Amino acid sequence: KFNQLVREEPDPIVKTMSLYAQDPSPNKVDVSIGVYKSESGGPYLFPCVAEAKKILAANDPGHNYTNMQGIPEFLEGARRAAFGEKYASEGKLASLQTISGTGALHMAFLFLREAGYTNYYLGVPSWSNYVSMVEHVGGKVTTFNHYREDTKDVDFDSVVATLESAPADSVFIFQTCCHNPTGADYTQEQWTKIAELVKQRSIIPLLDTAYQGFSSGDKEKDAWAIRHFYELGIEFVVSQSFSKNLGLYGERVGAMHAVVQDKEFVPNAQSTLVALFRSECSFAPAFGARVASIVFQSPELQKVWREDVANITKRLKSVRQKVLERLTKLQTPGTWDNVIKQEGLFWYSGLTPAQNDRLISKHSVYSTSIGRVNIAGLSDANINYFCDAVDEVVRA
Ligand code: LMR
């Protein structure tokens, strides 16, 4: 009966985003949902995407159904982006075009369930949607600490201890770069240790890659963990989003890949993915994937894309530096240098929920309730306003 349905709370990220939209203040600052914004504060259209859209418009493919696995050129490019030229073409990957990163995760969870994996481990704090998504498909999540408040960095002892004690055939969800929400990523040395343990203990990693390029400024470097796991002969899955690193948010462009080390079984994995997707939504949306394919296939647009990603990362780093300088100048009580140590879009500020509420109610500054600040929402026009507001709530 419909009257038995409970009223659900919105996701905290989406809740903050809607509160921002309703706020009439001319000073309001949106540092909530993970969207990259330009220096002028508006949405950023990647130059390579602008060019690809023109090419697509001039070669209109119409609106027929595409391919249930996904648009082949898109999947080829997505594989190359994640695994690199060489590994992408070795025939060990089963791939599916998905409804962006969330769709990729959902398909990964279904695929893993089909293969018999339902026991998940997740380092926290983490993206607010993982746990409900796993539970939605009948999986169980155990959490461990990804982050230490005292060092404001990765809690690597906790990661290692959990990998050492988790039962075989557990799935570990890891983010490859730009950790959401902490901005605290693993070093290559730490990834090497993780991969070693994963292999020893028959763990299945799910590598979620939603911000590839925004940690180091180089997409290849940010995919290091994926390629390292592949090289070690580990079986794993990758969920991949092009929302952020191509700015195609609303077009829902993503992919899921399963690495099947014994090539003989790739057709089984591939047909399983297609069968599962048929029951879910049949075909993924075409427009954004076609735009992405044009970028993937053109060496010139690839070059522009690389430069775009490098410039974005440069801007993020410069905003972080300016935030630190302003808070230092204000002598805001506390230590704030984690703002320049953390990478990607997010700064895990350490502000409490009460301080975050006050940022909203008194200053119209919208960061998420767990203190995650989307650095890309800041620019020269509002950095001082934002830092002054942080200073005020810290002293209040
Ligand atoms: C975020 O964490 O803000 C993004 O990944 C957007 C989302 O879907 O939550």
TrEMBL record:
GO terms of biological process kind: aspartate biosynthetic process
Catalyzed chemical reaction(s): L-aspartate + 2-oxoglutarate = oxaloacetate + L-glutamate
InterPro entries: Aminotransferase_I/II_large, Asp_trans, NHTrfase_class1_PyrdxlP-BS, PyrdxlP-dep_Trfase, PyrdxlP-dep_Trfase_major, PyrdxlP-dep_Trfase_small
Gene3D superfamilies: Aspartate Aminotransferase, domain 1, Type I PLP-dependent aspartate aminotransferase-like (Major domain)
Keywords: Aminotransferase, Pyridoxal phosphate, Transferase
Top-level taxon in the UniProt lineage: Eukaryota
CC per GO annotation: cytosol
The keyword Transferase appears for this protein: yes
One GO molecular-function entry: L-aspartate:2-oxoglutarate aminotransferase activity
Cofactor(s) of this protein: pyridoxal 5'-phosphate
Stretches assigned to the Aminotransferase class I/classII large domain: 27-390
Similarity section: Belongs to the class-I pyridoxal-phosphate-dependent aminotransferase family.
Note from the entry: In eukaryotes there are cytoplasmic, mitochondrial and chloroplastic isozymes.
Subunit and partners: Homodimer.
Name of the protein this chain belongs to: Aspartate aminotransferase
Organism of origin: Scheffersomyces stipitis (strain ATCC 58785 / CBS 6054 / NBRC 10063 / NRRL Y-11545) (Yeast)
Lineage: Eukaryota, Fungi, Dikarya, Ascomycota, Saccharomycotina
